[in-house]
Design a protein that fits this description.
With 271 residues, the protein is mostly helical. Helices cover 65% and strands 3% of the residues.
Length: 271
């Protein structure tokens, strides 16, 4: 009497997902081991699509290709594509609607404070207009933040501002990194407000200047004089609990910084 092998039970959803990812990883030339996590291909796909949307390959208001077309284009499963889309939905880049498809949302809806979206934006469109818009935001936010710190700030938060200022002052005599010290000073002020959104603005400012501004240009962060003097005046006003003076001095500092960047761009264009 012949013996028949028992039928193999259908794979579970978790196992199907693992098998799909293993196939994708092998197709991408990666080795999947039993001791390490599977490569997160959905993150790579999400970043690529984020870049494609920011650069205009998929314009705001347009429909993305069908899921079948996207899976073929990236050589991934529908599971991976869904996970990649969840990243873009969280960044307010796309929206999915039944019987319509997946559409790119208007540019004004995008979460520009998101670090990955900002990175894609900086890689593609950090032009003069972007710089101007950033400084408009800074001039609206940072003077008010300085006034808020002067009004109400914990000792621990102000100690971080003081430490950043000391390092900035040390740079003025040739000891340290000017751009890094200046960014630390400004982001410490925003963080000291205790407001999460202002702290996020500080992160965006840091990302921009670290990625796109040549630290050797006049006005890139702050020139040894007179901008360092402006920083000192802002620091002293906050230390002395003078909110309106802190607001005024921060506005003056940013105006000087903006004009310094404009002069450096103009001189570069002239050359």
């Amino acid at each position: 009497m012949a013996l028949t092998a028992p039928s193999r039970p259908p794979p579970t959803k978790r196992r199907r997902v693992a098998e799909e990812r293993a196939v994708e990883s092998r197709a991408a030339g990666r080795v999947v081991t039993s001791t390490g996590p599977a490569p997160k291909l959905y993150i790579q796909v999400g970043r690529r699509l984020c870049h494609d949307i920011v650069t205009g390959k998929y314009a705001p208001g347009s429909l993305l290709p069908t899921a079948t077309e996207m899976c073929e284009a990236f050589s991934v499963s529908r599971t991976t594509l869904r996970e990649a889309y969840s990243i873009l939905i969280a960044k307010a880049l796309i929206e999915a609607r039944a019987k319509i498809g997946t559409r790119v949302r208007p540019r004004g809806d995008w979460s520009l404070l998101d670090s990955e979206l900002l990175e894609a934006h900086l890689d593609t469109s950090a032009n003069e207009d972007f710089v101007e818009q950033l400084f408009v935001l800074r001039q609206m936010v940072e003077p008010a933040a300085a006034a808020l710190v002067a009004t109400a700030c914990s000792d621990a938060a102000f100690d971080r501002i003081a430490d950043a200022y000391r390092r900035l002052d040390a740079v003025s005599v040739g000891d340290g990194d000017l751009v890094a010290a200046d960014l630390d000073f400004h982001t410490a002020i925003l963080a000291a407000t205790g407001n999460r959104f202002l702290t996020a603005v500080g992160g965006m400012i840091r990302s921009f200047f670290e990625r796109k501004i040549n630290p050797n240009l006049p006005g890139a962060a702050c020139s040894p004089a007179p901008a360092l003097s402006h920083c000192q005046q802002v620091f002293e006003a906050m230390r002395d609990r003078a909110p309106e003076l802190a607001r005024e001095r921060m506005a003056l500092l940013l105006r000087d910084r903006r004009e310094g960047l404009k002069r450096s761009r103009d001189s570069g264009a002239a050359r």
